Amino acid sequence: MCKIKMVSALIPLMLVLSGCSVTPDAMPPTQVDIFILDLSTSNDKASQLRRLDEDLNKSLTSNGLGVPKPISNEIVSGPVTTIFTFIEEAATKSETFKIQDAESTIRLWNNEFAKDKERNAKGWLQISNAYSSYLQQKLNSPNSFSNSECQGDLDENLRDKFRADSKRGRIVDSLCEKIGNLVTGYSSMQLYVANKEAPQTDIFGMLAKIDRLVEQLKKQDPNSVITVNIGSDMQHETGDLRDTPAKLRATNFEREKACVVGQADRKKEGLTFDQSSIVKVNGIGNAQISAEFGNVLVRYWECFFPSAEIR
Question: Of 88, 252, 261, 298, which residue is most buried, by most CB within 10 angstroms?
C-alpha cells in the first residue's frame, strides 16, 4: 500500500507519495517440449515423425506465447520452448535444434505488458492471436517468410489495438524475430530429417543425453514443465551388450522376465529425467518385428519407465 506523508513548512498541504510501486504480473513457468526422432534404418522415420506431428504442431502453434493472465476460462500457461533432437548411431553425433525459445516471449511480457495490470490480459490475447495466425501461415509455406513483410503485416494487424507507434513497433519487432527464428529452425530440422539416416540405434546413449539436458533445464528454471516425447521403435542396436533384441530373446519373450530386465537396466543406467518430466514413448508399434516381440518390447519399456505413457 502507498504511504502518504504530509509535508508542511514552505510547501503547505503538499502530499508526497512514497513507497509506491506496481508489482508486475508474473509470467507462469516455461513449458519445455523435447522431441526425439529415431533416424535409424530399423524403423520408418517418416512414420515416426507423423506420430510426433500432433504434439509438435501443438507445441509450436497452440499458445506458444503462453497465457499469463486469462480473460475468461483460458488455462494459465507459460511460454513454450521447443527442442528437437535425434536417435542416431551415437548420441554425441546427433544434432539438436532449439526451434522455439521462450526467453524472447518472457522479455516481451516483462517489458511491455507485466505492469499494465488493467489491460495486459486483453493486450496479450490480441498479440497472441495475431502471432499464431501469422505463424501458422508461414509454417505451411516457410520459404515465403520475409521479416520486413512480417513487420508490415503485423503492424497493420495491431495498429487499432496499440495506437502508440513506439510500443507497437517494439511488439512487432519481437514477434517477427521470434517467427523468423522458429520458421528457420523448423525448416532446418525437416531438411536434416530428409537427408540423414543412421545405420545403428543408440537408444541408451540418447536417453543419457536427455537426462543431462533435463537436469540442466531444471537447474536453470526449477519450475519449468518439461515433456519428453520420443518417436522410436525403441530397439537399442549398437552391437554392445545393451542391445534389446538379444536381451529379449534371452527371456524367451516372457513378459514378466522382460519386466525384470527392464527394471534392472533402468537401475544400471541411473536415469532420473522421468521423475522431473512427462515422458511419452511413441512408435514401438511401428517396429518391424513380430507381434510376440513387440508385446514383450512394450513390457520392457513399461518397466524401464514406469510413469511414462507408452503408445
Answer: 88
Domain-wise residue ranges, the chain: 31-310
List average pLDDT for each run of 10 residues in the chain, which is 311 residues long. 45 45 90 96 88 94 93 92 96 92 97 96 96 94 92 97 96 98 96 93 96 97 97 92 92 95 96 97 80 91 95 81
Alpha carbons within 13 angstroms on the beta-carbon side of residue 56 total: 22
Residue in this structure with the C-alpha cell 521462450, named with its chain if needed: 102
Phi, psi of 81 (to 5 degrees): -110, 130
CA angle 173, 148, 165 (to 5 degrees): 45
pTM of the predicted model as reported, rounded to 2 decimal places: 0.90
